[in-house]
Design goal:
The chain is an alpha/beta fold. The chain has a single domain, classed as Rossmann fold (3-Layer(aba) Sandwich), CATH 3.40.50. It has five helices and six strands; from the N terminus they run E-H-E-E-H-E-H-E-E-H-H. Strands 1, 2, 3, 4, 5 and 6 form a six-stranded parallel beta sheet that branches. The chain starts with a strand and ends with a helix. Bound molecules: flavin mononucleotide. Flavin mononucleotide binds near residues 12, 61, 89, 90 and 94.
Length: about 140
């Protein structure tokens, strides 16, 4: 069974709602998924996974520091060729998502799901189905 990990940060819960719906989408098509907040994630957690999915909202045109720090730690894991995807809630500019996916693509050389998933906080409430579909799309790359 393919394995994925969804690692996220959030301040007010919107990105967490997205993370849970993406997890549900992955599970629905038979992927073994672990959902973790970035603070409680270690590099060892990435060892046996086929896909790494990162989620972070944008604050002051940037990622939250915990996710930034984790990206430095991720450099120690061998992620080359593994499937990667990025998502996050935002208000008007949403830079965090591209920052994560750029790092995953150019530094970790991951096989990225090209269309990242950014969602305005106000859209998350009605956007859970879209997040689920994103999870299924990631799963599709694993087959
Ligand atoms: C102090 C503050 C700064 C913010 N800065 C940005 C920003 O630079 N760009 C942006 O797109 N959204 C910005 N936002 C909006 C958040 O990204 C948005 O509310 C998002 O849904 C929060 O997601 P979360 O609930 O997962 O933390 C900001 C919000 C606050 C409260």
């Amino acid at each position: 069974m393919a394995k994925a990990i969804v690692i996220y940060e959030t301040a007010y819960g919107y990105t967490e709602t997205m993370a849970k719906a993406i997890e549900a989408g992955l599970k629905e098509v038979g992927v073994d998924v672990e959902l973790k907040k970035v603070m409680s994630t270690e590099v060892e957690d990435l060892k046996d996974v086929d896909a790494v999915v990162l989620g972070c909202p944008t604050y002051h045109h940037d990622m939250i520091t915990t996710m930034k720090t984790f990206l430095f730690k991720m450099k120690k894991a061998d992620l080359k060729g593994k499937v990667g995807a990025a998502f996050g809630a935002y208000g008007w500019s949403g830079e965090s998502v591209e920052m994560m996916s750029d790092t995953m693509k150019h530094i970790f050389e991951m096989d990225m799901i090209e269309q990242d998933l950014r969602m305005k906080g106000t859209e998350v409430v009605t956007g859970e189905e879209e997040c689920k579909e994103f999870g299924k799309k990631i799963a599709g790359r694993l087959k």
